[in-house]
Amino acid sequence: MDKTKDPLLEELHLPPLKRKGFTDQLRLRIESEIEAQERQKKHKSNRFWLPVWSGAALLAAMLVYMVYPDSGAEQSANQAISAAEEQPKASKAASAHELKSGLLIGLREDSADEAEDEYRTLWISPDEDGLEVKQEGGDLLIPYKMDFWRLEHLYRAEGESLRATKLKLSEPSMTVLAAEPVTLNMNGERVKIQFAGQEYVALQQESSMGESFKVTKLSSIAEGAMEPVSLNRLAAIPSQLTKEYLEWTIMRDKGSWVAHPSEAEEEGYPLSRTVVAHDRLCADWSEVERIEPNAIDAVCSPTKDMLAVFTEDEIRFYPFEEGIIDDLLLTVPLKDEEKMIMAEWATGDYVSKWDEWLKLLLP
Amino acid sequence: MNFDYLKYIASDTDMKQTLNDLMKAYGNDVWNYAFLICKKTDLADDITQDTFLKAYKKLHTFRGQSSVKTWLFTIARNTAFDYKKSSFLRRVTLVDYITQQKTHPSAEAEALEAIYTSELWEKVIQLPVKLRESLILYAHYQLKIQEIAELLETSEGTVKSRIFKARIKLMQLTEEREHFG
Fold first, then answer.
1. Which residue, A182, A145, A203, is CA-closest to A341?
2. What is the interface pTM, i.e. ipTM, of the complex?
């Protein structure tokens, strides 16, 4: 077959698409994936050799000491022993490299004097030396399914409002498509975001009539409606409670999110997984208090490899392995009157994905 | 760019630079090939990424049994068919199936039509995958029949027959379009 004389085949010699498929962005994506895989391989290899080298050094020094007991070998043996004693410490540092989780935390700082509350979102994930606050930004960034919502609490001359923006992620092109933001005016009421997770937010509203509580969907805010969702649908309540609770809120209670009907605040009910995907503490509360006597709250990763303990003024991150809380890895200072209102975990491949996405979303 | 040196790759070869050269020389060919198999731009990105990651890991095993381009295409093809087996593509295929049930072409299909360089390419993409693949490798990538047969793990006779059938089908599609406007 002579291709040069065949018009049909000649036309197909041209590229099929008008645009170039293999972009610089894709090339960078491939290069960064190779870097990430090589880093991981290196860490695994270091972890394998560390105990071997320490053991070999200890054995060699002991042999020298047995053959030449009066020589300076004692010093060598001591050094080797101290090297071997240091080994578990190095191993702990290395264990940080095996963390498979990242935490996206939403915080609310209550104003002292009726001024503006402040919100911020932090992304904490593993790096080469352990853990790092990789991104931080104002407002709340709430992951839901494969996308994110940005929720802003605005203070304007006409009063407070909430602004919700859906951020749709397009992975191959690493682009964020932001929907038209929707601003919901609070009609003169004060508002506090008490919880954000999955597709729900819990709000505390305050007007001249008093306080009220509501749990609503982010999509409802984006429709300008803020329809309340019943507690009965989202929490496990005793069967004798037949009343429908439209006024309720979501609060922290020593390591768990709980549903609280506002008129029966002494009792909280466990929430459905549609509100909080993961909410199980990996250690007993007594163990958390033993490690951190000033602990007021704690969250644990779904893969049970990371524990974040909250005190009044700090978040303290510990690796957690086989039921043991390891050495402190990272401390994040909290501002006065700052409270956690969101804790969303990424695990496995999603950690590196969120590393990349949150560079764009929390610049 | 000449990649003959890959046959005798030494331990001190800068593999990352080699990968970079490969991506520069064949990145677009691999992406287009992946796209022409799967017809999805997102998926073509993923297949291309996996192809170069696998090639990077296997660089030292390349001994020049085929050209570098054919070697990359073989990896891309296997990757694409692995994806096809995975639930991801099953989901995508289901979406395809649903959109095909509609009377009007989907927005995505319309957008894709607009990105082809010619009407002929629009028709080629409609061919069954086996015919499409043989034709593209022959006409667009200018591979020899023997190379295509090795890549597709079939006989040279089958490749020739598929190219012939693809041409007939293309003519039919052209006639249909002229007839129905």
1. A203
2. 0.81
